[in-house]
Amino acid sequence: MCGRYVLSAPGEVLAELFELPAPVELAARYNIAPTQAVPIVRAAGESVRELAFAQWGLVPHWAKERAIGNRLINARGETLAEKPSYRDAFKRRRCLIPATGFYEWKKVEGGKQPYLLRLRDGAPFGFAGLWSAWRDRESGETLESCAIVTTSPNPLAATVHDRMPVILPRERHALWLDSGTADPEALSPLLVPYPEEEMEALPVSTRVNNPRNDDPSLVEPIG
Length: 223
Hints:
Helices cover about 10% and strands about 35% of the residues. By secondary structure, it is mostly beta strands. The longest helix is centred in the first third of the chain and has 7 residues, at about 10-15. The radius of gyration is 17 Å and the shape is globular. The mean pLDDT is about 95.
């Protein structure tokens, strides 16, 4: 699973990578956690993309309560077309979730050691994501929310955890965001592990365990 991640790239770099119409202004975040509002990139018409914010933890449109999102932070890529919580979003509301790294915890003697996994060149990237719009029947409020799609780990990630988020190379962004594509057979080939030779896994401080900690020291390797 992916339960924390990092987004610390300059706005102009993100705008270029995700082909947004204008640079974006986002504060660097080093310990993004579930239930927080996170930036997503989605289609906003033909050949147009927009940056929006969504709660991390997907609330399906049919849900009675928003609390269901607390446990729907990750969506297994292998079953997106089958699971009621995700299949509608998989067909109609796919997004990219910008990041520069993510944390996983490795079981070690005496506890768990957090690792930061990122691209070797430090470049930002996009997780494959799903988003949903849910309306509170009492207040009339509309909540937009999202989940990160996961897959089996590459050999590097497997040394830390048994799952990893789907990282989509830039050349696959357009197909994933294409609202005219709903065929699982066309989309499933995108949901594969990212090449291990392009990634690194670095042990970091256990300060990342507390989501209240959010500063650059969290991504500094230890040991």
